[in-house]
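Researcher: Next entry in the queue.
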Amino acid sequence: MTIGNRVKELRTYEGITQAKLARIIGVKPKTVSAYENNSSFPSLNVVVKAATHFNVSVDYILCRTNNPKSHEMKLPENMMMLHPNTPDEMVAEIRNQIDLLALKYKL
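Model: Structure for this entry, 107 residues:
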């Protein structure tokens, strides 16, 4: 499995076009095509946007896990305190940022 295959798998499972995904993640449709053909690789910012949209972990898109919901693993209570009304989308983005930091620092 490659990053491009994973992006295509998520996009087709959701039933959206390359053009729609491009709008969602802020790139051109030909860039999504390049990702899916493995001739270009998304930036970390784009990976985070895609992970947030598809509600999967950054690690899943990067093929570091086969568990798309690994970002939903519970953190110890003392690691992250959020306001109870924090929107789910914001929580997902925070978890994706934590995934990126863990990747950066090889945790």
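Model: The two ends are 23 Å apart (CA to CA).
Researcher: Noted, moving on.
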